[in-house]
Design a protein that fits this description.
With 216 residues, this protein is of the alpha/beta class. The protein contains six helices and nine strands, in the order H-H-E-H-E-H-E-E-H-E-E-E-H-E-E.
């Protein structure tokens, strides 16, 4: 049984229970503050945002409020989506996974919200394809995830038999010739700056989907 099956089985809801915080205990997420700052020059062009792996929706709400945009989310946890439906009326969320996203429209900003490291490697390129499908030409793609100088896997700390897969997720988009890197920032779980511990390294990357660069 792969990671996806284990998340369907119970881990998606367990993740939500571990990480959900009541509104009065929340602090704004620093990477979302930074991403919003990067996008302020394009604020008037961003009407619709989708976050894949949106958790309890708090990060998505933070972004939609900052950019004055409509918010959509995809999250494997049924409990998380129920929470969003009952408590966050400004965003629309659906249960789903990154390899088969249940939205047909295109978006001005697609954010991959710290889930790619948990994607089974046989589904990785499907997630890439789905993300690309959702980003309209002239739109933006952002990624928060582990980033390491070489690919490797290690054990997921919360459940035996689940593995974390870490590498540079930006490369595959740039290699397509369709995306350009706008900004990148490295930080860690512990602090909002670079970590010498390779296991803790995270990056936030903003990419732009080029338009009118190929004929036809």
């Amino acid at each position: 049984m792969g990671n996806k099956e284990k998340f369907i089985d119970s881990e998606a809801n367990e993740w939500f229970r571990r990480n959900h915080q009541p509104p009065e205990q929340r602090q704004p997420d620093e990477d979302m503050i930074l991403l919003s700052a990067w996008l302020q020059p394009f604020k008037n062009e961003i009407d619709n945002i989708i976050e894949i792996g949106c958790g309890d929706g708090r990060r998505l709400v933070q972004m939609t409020e900052s950019l004055n945009a409509n918010g959509y989310g995809v999250e494997p946890s049924v409990e998380a989506v129920d929470y969003i439906d009952n408590n966050l009326p400004t965003i629309s969320a659906k249960v789903g996974f990154g390899d088969n996203i249940p939205f047909d429209k295109s978006f001005d900003l697609v954010h991959l919200g710290f889930f790619i490291y948990l994607v089974d490697r046989e589904n990785f390129l499907r997630c890439v394809s789905e993300a690309d499908r959702l980003v309209k030409p002239g739109g933006f793609l952002s990624i928060t995830d582990f980033e390491t100088p070489y690919p490797y896997s290690n054990d997921y700390s919360h459940r035996a038999g689940i593995y974390s897969h870490k590498h540079n997720n930006t490369d595959v988009f740039v290699a397509s010739g369709l995306y350009s890197v706008v900004n990148k920032f490295h930080f860690s779980h512990k602090d909002f700056f670079f970590d010498k511990d390779i296991n803790e390294r995270i990056s936030l990357t903003l990419l732009y989907k080029e338009m009118n660069i190929f004929r036809g």
